[in-house]
């Protein structure tokens, strides 16, 4: 249990520090990006590049509808998954293809994928950064939710 607490604090610190000092390569993109994903490799201690990510939105009938897809950059990030106009109030699911990532590194992981299900924009329009810390046998997620910057 202590290990999970340490992982969570570590992940939260990484997300906080990256929010406080974004990489130069992003420029002003972050302030306009309502949904951003960050993925970190806990084994190598580095960003997890080329992780396939799918985003789904829950439909009125309870089914999951495709919403967006992408692959993480060399910085382990995906920006511009959606626009302010498309990212409406609702329930969303982000699916990280962890199996392909670990298999690509020659490891045999336990999980097929890691996912995060969350409600967005139910308290007004917000920007969401969803971060995942991956290892072959576990994962941890956290979110930073903020008001949009103009």
> In terms of structural class, how would the helical and strand content be classed?
alpha+beta
Taking pLDDT < 50 over at least 5 consecutive residues as the criterion, the unreliable ranges are 6-12, 14-29
Provide the succession of SSEs. HHEEEEEEHEEE
Q: What is the C-alpha radius of gyration, as a whole number of Å?
A: 15 Å
Form type: globular
What labels would you give this structure?
single chain, 150 residues, alpha+beta
Give the secondary structure arrangement, pairings included.
Blueprint: H1 2-20, H2 29-32, E1 35-41, E2 46-47, E3 52-58, E4 64-71, E5 77-78, E6 90-96, H3 98-104, E7 114-120, E8 127-135, E9 138-146
Parallel strand pairs: 1-8
Antiparallel strand pairs: 1-2, 1-5, 3-4, 3-6, 6-7, 8-9
Could you please describe the fold and organization of this structure?
The protein is α+β, with helices and mostly antiparallel strands. It contains 3 helices and 9 strands. Strands 1, 2, 5, 8 and 9 form a 5-stranded mixed β-sheet that branches. It has a 4-stranded antiparallel β-sheet with strand order 4-3-6-7, covered by helices on one side. Strand 8 and strand 9 form a beta hairpin. The longest helix is centred in the N-terminal third of the chain and has 19 residues, at 2-20. Mean pLDDT is 83; it is low at 6-12 and 14-29.
């Amino acid at each position: 249990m202590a290990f999970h607490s340490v992982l969570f604090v570590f992940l939260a610190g990484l997300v906080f520090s990256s929010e406080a000092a974004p990489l130069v390569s992003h420029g002003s993109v972050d302030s306009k990006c309502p949904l951003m994903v960050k993925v970190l490799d806990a084994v190598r201690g580095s960003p997890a590049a080329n992780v396939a990510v799918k985003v789904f939105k829950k439909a009125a009938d309870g089914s999951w509808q495709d919403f967006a897809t992408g692959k993480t950059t060399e910085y382990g990030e995906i920006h511009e998954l959606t626009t302010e106009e498309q990212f409406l109030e609702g329930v969303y699911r982000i699916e990280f293809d962890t199996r392909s990532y670990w298999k690509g590194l020659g490891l045999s992981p336990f999980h097929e994928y890691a996912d995060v299900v969350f409600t967005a924009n139910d308290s007004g329009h917000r920007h969401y950064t969803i971060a995942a810390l991956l290892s072959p046998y576990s994962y941890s997620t956290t979110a930073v939710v903020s008001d949009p910057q103009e």
